[in-house]
Every structure is written in C-alpha cells, then in structure tokens.
Amino acid sequence: MTRVALRTLVALSLLFATPCARAQVRTDTTPRTTGDSALEARTSAVAAQLRCPVCQGLSIQDSPSELAQSMRSLVRDQLAQGKSPEQVKAYFVSKYGEWILLSPAPHGFNLLAYAIPVLMVLGGGAFIAVAVRRWTSSPTPDATSTEDPT
Amino acid sequence: MNWRRAGIAAALVIPVVFVFSRGMKIDPREIPSPLPGNPAPPFALAVFAPGQPPLERPIGDTVRLADLRGRVVVLNFWASWCLACRDEHVGLTDVARGYAGKPVTFVGSLYQDTPGNGTQWIAEMGGQSYPSVNDPKARTAIDYGLYGVPETFFITAEGKIARKITGPAPPQVIRQIIDSLLTTTSSP
C-alpha cells in the first residue's frame, strides 16, 4: 500500500513537475532567444544600409571582408547599448561621410540622385510617345495627293 | 549643316565628356574623410611592440590620446599583410627618430592583424623606432573612418585631426606636416 502510494506520488510529481520544469526552461531561454534574434534582425536591417569601405559595392551585411564583419559587430553592440538605428547610422556617417550610406539621404544635392531617374523615365516616355505617334499617324491628304502618280 | 541638331548633340555630349574627364582624375576607392578639422576620436590601446630607445614604451602599457594633449600625434594604421606598409616603414621609423626630444609622438596601430604577426613583421623589417598598439575588433580604426592600410593621421596638440594621408606616407611630406603643426603649436 505504501509502495502504491509512493508510486502515485512520484507519478503525480512527475506529471506536474515536468511541465513546470519545461516552463522554467522556456522562461529562461525563450526571451533571450527572441531578444537575440530581434537584435540580429535589427543589426541586419542597419548593416544592409551601410556600404562596405573595402568592397564598396556591397553592404556590410553582404560583404565577407573583415572590416565589414568588425563594423557589423559594432552595429550590433551599439544597438544592444540602446542606440536607435538612426543614431547608429549617424555614427558611421560622422566617420565616413554620407558615402557610407548605400541610399543617400534625400536632401540638397542628393535629391538629384532621386530626381534624375524619374526625369529620364518621363523624358524617355515622352520621346517614345511622340515618335510612336509620328510613325503611326496616317499621311496627310496633301502628301498623298502629291505622291500619287496620275 | 543642321545647326539645331548640332546644338542638341553638343548639349548632350559636352556634359557627359565633362563628367567623364573629371571622373578619370578621381580615385574611386578614395573616400573623402569628414574627420580633418574635427576632434580626434579618443583611444586607449595596449602596446604590443615597444619600439626602440628613446621612443620605446613597455609592452602592455596603455597609450591614451588624452595623455598626449600638448603633443603632435602621428597615428599610423598598418598591418603585416599590407604590402604598401613595407614601402613607408623605413621612412616613418627614420622620421620618428628624428623628432625624438620634440613634442611629437608616433604611434603605430595594428589593423586586422595579430600582435604575433605584427611583432614578427617588425623584426623582419629591421625594427620600428616608435611603439605599436593593438586595436582589437578594429574599433579605433572604424572610429577614424579607416578603409584600408596604410593610413596616417596627424593630430594637433589641441587634439584635432589636421591631416590624413591615404597610402604610403612620403617622409618629406610627414616632416612638412609635422613642422607646420609644431609651428602652429609654438606660436602664441
């Protein structure tokens, strides 16, 4: 009887203890994992906007260079310290100039980088529209009458 | 000749030729630094290569920029894997020795390299008159907007970045810059 009671007690304790232990494990690891992955995601988002000084055509997120890795680690550390993505980008701009931003800030002279493609598309579209209209327009009656051999 | 067409062609071609002619004179890899004229980023880095008397510092000693106020500081970033660093090494070490006893401090900062490799390289190159420090994770290099080695920064006695040389620094240019900074420092 005592043995049965003991087994029941052990079974009940396992039944209740295991989920608690699991919950304990979850509470210990889940927030940290979420925090780490959130920090990684924020790091990647900022790193994707910064140009690698070595490769120059790639972001520090994509570049395999050692300097890019060091810069990415610095981005992560600054974000972990509580700096905002804008503050982190401002830090790199203060060291490397606006060149470090893969997309230049839309103000002043930089506006040309945004305006010129739009103007070129509009100008090209207008040119094509005029050319197509000329090509497809039917010849004038006068022209037909002068070219028409009688 | 159709002058209207010639004018349109000229208006399109001349700006393109102008942009290309300017672009050919610019090194696309050279990034204009916003740092000259601004306060030099502070650093506190440990010596791994002591240099030679009378400029030597003990290994493990911390070189702090804040402690060098009142002196012109020449901060040279280098690495053992950098071929261009070999070109400037002898000149830099000679110039540094020539300014011993004057308010000028030369500091070498190892970039993306290990102190072991750096020490071996210095020995192969016949020694270095001034101390070199280690820059873990290249934090100081990034603080100085570095994008390659060698790069040399000239810091005024007031702690501002006066000049930056990208690539091997010619000895006569180093002397010229230091002398001008010393003149500025000594003048009231």
What is the makeup of the main sheet of chain B?
7 strands, mixed
Number of strands of chain B: 7
How would a textbook summarize the main sheet of chain A?
none
Name the beta content range of chain B: 15-25%
Secondary structure: number of strands of chain A: 0
Oligomer: heterodimer
Rg estimate of chain B, integer Å: 21 Å
Which stretches of chain B are low in confidence, meaning pLDDT under 50 for 5 or more residues running? none
Report the helical percentage of chain A.
over 70%
Proportion of beta-strand residues of chain A: under 5%
Assigned CATH architecture of chain B: 3-Layer(aba) Sandwich
Structural class by helix and strand composition of chain B:
alpha/beta
Low-pLDDT runs of 5+ residues of chain A are 12-31
CATH fold annotation of chain B: Glutaredoxin
Question: What percent of residues of chain B adopt helix (DSSP H or I)?
Answer: 25-40%
What spatial order of strands do you see in the largest sheet of chain B? Answer: 2-1-5-4-3-6-7
Distance between the termini of chain B: 69 Å
The CATH class designation of chain B is: Alpha Beta
Supply the number of structural domains of chain B: 1
Return the string of H and E elements of chain B. HEEEHEHEHEEH
CATH superfamily annotation of chain B = Glutaredoxin
What is the gist of this entry?
Chain A has about 150 residues and is an all-alpha fold. Chain A has helices at about 1-45, 65-80, 85-95, 110-135, 140-145.
